[in-house]
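Task card 7
Instruction: Convert sequence to structure tokens.
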Amino acid sequence: MSRAEYDEGFRASALRHTGYRGLRLGAITAAGNVLRDAASKILENPAAAAELEAALRAALNDPDEMIRERAAWALRPGA
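Output:
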């Protein structure tokens, strides 16, 4: 989700308090937790798991250092 999409989609939402960065950090944290959870249904779908991992890998190149660090954490096995 781009910053413009966030601004448009959440302009009247309580998620505005979290902010764009906070929303992204939370999503990365959730993705990392899903990949680690052996009971996660996403692991039953290899294509979905690969897509999630690819999105996290893309975040490793984000200009925001906090986003990069959280993505690295999310991709670390057993972290």
